[in-house]
Amino acid sequence: MTAALAPAGRQGILPFVYRVGDREDVTAHAGLPLVLETMRALRLDELVRQELPSPKRKRGYLPAHKLETLITLFAAGGERIEDVRILSEDKGLGVLLGSPIPSPDALLDFLGQFHDPKAWGERPAEKKAFVPAESFGLVGLDAINREVVTRGANREQKTATIDHDGTIVEAHKREAKVAYEGTRGYQPLVAVWAEEDLIVADQFRDGNVAGGEDPLTSAKKAFANLPEWIERRYFRADSASYYSKLLKWLVEEKIGFTISADMTKELRKVCQAVPESQWVLFEKRQSEQVDIAEVEFTPGEWSRQAEPLRYAVVRFTPSQNDLFDAPERKHLAVVSNRRDFTAAQLMRWHWEKAGTVEHTHRVMKDELAAGTMPSGRFGVNAAWFRINAIAFNILTILKRRALPENIRTARPKRLRFEFFTIPAKLVLHGRQLSVRVSASEERLKVLVEARKRLLELHEQTPSRRRRSADWRASGQRQGRSPAPASRRKKGAAPETRLA
Length: 499
Hints:
disordered C terminus; nine-stranded mixed beta sheet; alpha+beta; three-stranded antiparallel beta sheet
């Protein structure tokens, strides 16, 4: 025994000593099984058996158990594969979860199955920024997430607003590419269903692949992953999605949208030519005044015969300026096909995106484990990121379907502090395992009611006996997803940025 853990002597200021223990009748995570019960309520284990490839070796942990372990690890605050060792030290938690916790090596082997080095063989020699086709396993993870969203969402919600945005994940792996701002890492796209706070799609990308590289494929995937009961569809995005093909598709699909427009020379000239009488006060801030107006503008790739798009422009004028200089005004524009809002309402609705998808990025990277990549292999990191997205959805469903209303907007760190890290003693009497928690009666009641609601959700969730239709799609029969639009056939029209 080391000196630090010796029973004799003084270890610190307070009058106690730490000693090594190996007891299965105590746990520091009595509330963490709520995460596993949420997964079981949605029958995630069945989805994994149906959607992921069967393991080559029949011995060891099943894929469903490994996926559940990773999601539980992320919910507990772990951000590296090695952190699972800390969970495995909690013997009582293993008893509550019903099985031992897999080792880091087992989890890394599981993630390794999602990497397909052959996908990079399809990269054109002249193309530096490349989005490879998804492997068989990644397609399966997407199908799992799509079903999790369908089973966990509120069926009375008939409106789906997709907020679409990319984020930079810093990584110091040798294989990571440098992004536009100089950061080495990755730049995945994420699509969030704003009304339900659920991630419906993601596309993992190298850092040197710009957010504006084929956003249409990602947007189509997001809408395809929505539940079939959705009646009204909307889309919000920043200027990375300001592309002719995406705008035309949204118009054809009758999807209402707002997208931040590139402030090109042509558009800026139109904004600056707006008469002062047409500007309307939008907001009065401490350091600036914001005015709004609408302008008539047709981007270069937009057909003159097509329905004209709507451009709302805000002008920022500093409240104080240099004595001899005119105020330096800044313009921002939003393009839309929505006619049911005033210009001010349209702009405010567009800016709501910052409270959804950007919040999702922060939670994914700072409070779950999407900000720490486990490998230099692209497919492993893509799977890690997608499993974090599934974990985000599992926690959202737990909050909205089982926990009280005041927890609806709680971030993971709040869930850990209030529910997941409750100390408890395990008592086995006869065949009944009891968990005696060191918590108030009120907090215990919340745990019990949450478990009852999850049990009801499990009973209401039907088992699915067949695999996803994606598995039978011609482009995925060999384990590949259809090629993204960024990998076009020779001679095909290129993606055109709007002017």
